[in-house]
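Please produce the structure of this protein holding pyridoxal-5'-phosphate.
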Amino acid sequence: MPTYNRADLAFERGEGAWLWTGDGRRFLDFGSGIATASIGHAHPHLVQAIAEQAARVMHTSNLYRIPQAERLAARLVETSFADSVFFCNSGAEANEGMIKAVRKYHAEQGHPERFVTICFEGAFHGRTLATLAATGNEKYLAGFGPPVQGFKHVPFGNMNALRDAIDGTTAAIMVEPIQGEGGVRPASLEFLRQLRAAADEFGLLLALDEVQTGMGRSGKLWAHQWAGIEPDVMSSAKGIGGGFPLGAILAKERVAQYLKPGTHGSTYGGNPLACAAGNAVLDVILAPGFLDGVDRVARHLWRGMLDLAHRHPAVVEGVQGAGLLLGLKLRPEISNGEMQNAAVAEGLLTVAAGMNVLRLAPPLIITEAEADEALSLLERTCLRCTPSQARDAAK
Ligand SMILES: Cc1ncc(COP(=O)(O)O)c(C=O)c1O
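Below is the modeled complex.
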């Protein structure tokens, strides 16, 4: 179906941060399949884990125990705030389940009227009916009938508006620590702390969408850890499977306890193959020093991007984001689609984001040399996009 405006590129193979088309052209992949190929393409450990598991058993269903899922859940619990994990297949499915979990929590507490989740303008939570309503973007909602009830939106970063929106129907606050699709806009750490405090004050659940920001992308395993807070429930997907479809809801026991048999489910969710992939990805990300390396290369890239922005004021307005989720905010006369195409022409893959931002979300395994290579390709991309008057003025 014509759901995507696809670039006329088809990749035949990948290795680390690089992709090759069938006709032999090589691209530096700073999009990672939209922040998903977290440990790069064809990582030998991930390839081996998937191949070995596929040869043994791929799918058995949740009617039986799944040791690979039990192991992955135990490791996620050990390395997060959570007591319990539910596996699914995508970010939207994880968020859909997270929304159900917060509603169920209040219903079981004797307050079924508390079913409203407060979300933020500029959010992106997925394409199912409930996650579209949580996203709240009129453009995405148009044509799909009445939006699912139970979502309110307030400006991102505005504590007064958030507090004003809380009433007797409020169940939760749902937020991305860095708005990804919305324009690579980080919540300030103080804002995240204030959300935690407001949730505590009003008996709400804090539900974090770490689909894009989690699994090491920020330089910590979970982006909220930079703020020193814990959510009550959190969604994960994208990088968690390293390119294999996998999603998860992580929750405190006080939330998870109510998701009893019959309340929620997924045929594929947490199958042996997906969880073998998830365990292999975790092996890499939790290896000693790996996240420090992500932080280091991210800071190196950030400095280079600031420099680039400084040298190309006719194209770039600023740099935003955190960790390896970075954005170049472009000047209004340069569209991010145009810049994305220009980057492709230079051999660099990026992803457009909202608010005219060009997003960089490279695999977490990139080296400083690869970051430098991306910067020099971006340099050439900026030159391609520089309006002719600005070019003439600089001569
Ligand atoms: C923050 C966030 N939540 C949810 C989703 C939806 O994930 P999926 O496309 O896997 O359903 C995305 C996808 O871009 C996302 O960035």
